[in-house]
Amino acid sequence: MINLPAILDVPLRTDEYGTIRVGQTRVTLDTLIATYQRGDSPTDIHRSFPTVPLADIHAVISYYLAHQEEVDTYIREGEEKAEIARQEFEEKFPPNQALRDRLHRVKALVERVREEALNGELTNDLIPENSLPIPHEVT
Predict the structure, then answer these.
(1) Which residues pair with 28 in a beta bridge?
(2) What is the pLDDT tens value at each position of the chain, 139 positions in all?
(3) Fold for domain 12-92?
(4) Which one of 2, 32, 40, 55 is least enclosed by Cβ atoms within 10 Å?
(5) For the whole model, what pTM was predicted?
């Protein structure tokens, strides 16, 4: 006969900032549950977060299923706090649309240069005036 423990420990802890984490890892309860909700299996979750033992993943999912309302409330409250923090940050440091536009252009340029380099078609005419120079080696 199996000697069953009276209580099974759920590998969750609250860090100094009030965030619930799984075991002694940095993986948050929110993250693990989000991956579960999108359809990842415990094994898939373990592949994505190998620092979390598979048994802990099963235990956390079991806890979630037994306490879904409380966990969903915790996650929702965290999302609300994050949205408030984002709004406060953007009030103090408004987004710079010109900078965003430039970053998007640079990103597109980098992708184009990478594509051209991979295809062996890299030429200097890809780089517009007042832009970034072509690096000597493209990796």
Answers:
(1) 21
(2) 888 777 878 999 999 999 999 999 999 999 999 999 999 999 999 999 999 999 999 999 999 999 999 999 999 999 999 999 999 998 888 878 888 888 999 999 889 888 888 887 766 665 555 555 555 554 4
(3) Arc Repressor Mutant, subunit A (1.10.10)
(4) 2
(5) 0.65
